[in-house]
From TrEMBL:
Keyword set includes Transcription: no
Membrane-traversing stretches: none
Methyltransferase type domain: residues covered: 18-121
GO BP field: methylation
EC code: 2.1.1.-
InterPro entries: Methyltransf_11, SAM-dependent_MTases_sf
Name of this chain's protein: Class I SAM-dependent methyltransferase
Organism from which the protein derives: Nocardioides yefusunii
A GO term, aspect molecular function: methyltransferase activity
Keyword terms, alphabetized: Methyltransferase, Transferase
């Protein structure tokens, strides 16, 4: 279940790519399938172990093109253990809403992206998230839960200004290149969960809708694919923002 459009990101075989806050690895796996030199980065050692195991299984099964590489790295989003401009493409999916110092995390992402490189950042979309918060305190007050709700304007502003040094001297100012939405079918599920109780997986409504989502993911029926395309721009649960780092640093006029 991908959130990022990798064609829109401009990913090519051989690109050095970072999945920052990879979680279970869904985007890292797709980048590996596309022939990337992939680093799956997270602070959760257990999840990284599972991601690494699947990287190995993918290679052994012949699911990745020759020359593709993949590895995992544990660390802190506020101090990425990579050199300046090391990556051609970066994905940061459903991560920033969990981080108190989100601006510092964004600055690190900009730092490790090469000039001319591209980045996709996804966060929960404002309207679906506001409804979730209003329906359930438990939804966002859980340990490690969501601590903020972004508007597109707020996040675009934070990212496009992230390359400007604190001393005000000219720096790399990221370019916003486009926006998309994903997982429109998933939004009603979370509204139901928040209404009946986020931990009540056995509630009849939540259980029935979950079966629908499993069917969507596993079988990809055309009717649900069409429904998703209609719902994504209306109530898509995730907002995806695309950025490019300029080839040369911005200079004040």
């Amino acid at each position: 279940m991908l959130t990022v459009d990798f064609d829109r990101l401009g990913m090519k075989p051989g690109d050095r790519v970072l999945d920052m806050g990879c979680g279970a690895g869904r985007h890292a796996f797709e980048m590996y399938r596309r022939g990337g030199d992939v680093v799956a980065f997270d602070m959760d050692v257990d999840e990284l172990a599972g991601v690494k195991d699947l990287f190995v299984a993918m290679k052994e099964a012949g699911e990745v093109p020759e020359g593709a590489e993949a590895d995992v790295k544990e660390g802190d989003a506020l101090a990425l253990p990579f050199g300046d401009g090391e990556f051609d493409r970066i994905v940061c999916a459903e991560v920033l809403e969990h981080i108190w110092n989100d601006v510092d995390a964004i600055k690190e992402l900009v730092r490790v992206l090469r000039p001319g490189g591209t980045m996709a950042i996804t966060v929960p979309r404002w309207l679906p998230e506001v409804v979730n918060w209003k329906l359930s305190q438990e939804y966002h007050n859980a340990p490690g839960g969501h601590i903020r709700i972004y508007t597109d304007h707020e996040l675009i502003d934070k990212v496009t200004k992230a390359g400007t040094p604190n001393d005000g001297t000219p720096g790399d100012v990221m370019e916003f290149t486009g926006k998309g939405y994903a997982h429109g079918l998933h939004t009603p599920y979370w509204w139901i969960k928040c209404a009946v109780g986020v931990n009540k997986d056995d509630h009849p409504l939540a259980k029935a809708y979950h079966k629908l989502l499993v069917w969507e993911i596993m079988k990809q029926p055309k009717a649900l694919q069409l429904a998703g395309k209609v719902l994504d721009p209306m109530i898509g649960k995730s907002m995806v923002l695309y950025f490019r780092k300029p080839e040369t640093p911005a200079v004040d006029a």
